[in-house]
């Protein structure tokens, strides 16, 4: 695994015209070193009125409490603005970490079948790919 693969990466798509969902795709290790990047993208995704955000964790290899903080904050922001945020995750280790931290079932997690429906189709418009590190 190269250093580039290990760093957390975020890609955000613009809301689509049909469902209005914004998909935030995460890659690599999501920890305290990448919190600033994750927070910036999730804040942008939850900034509007009634934000509908899907956070795709299928590309994540590791997440710790530093990465879970921004997820909790974004979920609260979405709820406060009359919207919602859900997760797509199929990795049993990541799911266990989210469950042990108490994020699930508060934040809904899409099943693998539903993940296929929500997945890449929701990402339209320009995509932003940024790499960890300031």
From TrEMBL:
PANTHER family recorded: ANTI-SIGMA FACTOR ANTAGONIST TM_1081-RELATED, ANTI-SIGMA FACTOR ANTAGONIST TM_1081-RELATED-RELATED
Domain of life where this protein originates: Bacteria
Family: Belongs to the anti-sigma-factor antagonist family.
Name assigned to this protein: Anti-sigma factor antagonist
Domain STAS: start-end pairs: 20-103
NCBIfam families: ant_ant_sig (TIGR00377)
Provenance organism: Streptacidiphilus alkalitolerans
Pfam families per record: STAS
InterPro entries given in the database record: Anti-sigma_ant, STAS_dom, STAS_dom_sf
């Amino acid at each position: 695994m190269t250093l580039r693969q290990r760093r957390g990466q975020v890609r955000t798509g613009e809301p689509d015209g049909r469902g209005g969902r914004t998909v935030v795709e995460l890659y690599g290790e999501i920890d305290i070193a990448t919190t600033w990047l994750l927070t910036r993208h999730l804040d942008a995704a939850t900034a509007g009125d009634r934000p509908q955000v899907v956070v795709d964790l299928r590309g994540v290899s590791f997440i710790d409490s530093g990465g879970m903080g921004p997820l909790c904050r974004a979920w609260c922001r979405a709820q406060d603005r009359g919207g919602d945020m859900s997760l797509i995750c199929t990795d049993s280790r990541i799911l266990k970490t989210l469950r042990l931290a108490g994020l699930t079932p508060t934040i809904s997690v899409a099943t693998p079948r539903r993940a296929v429906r929500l997945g890449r189709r929701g990402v339209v418009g320009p995509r932003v790919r940024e790499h960890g590190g300031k």
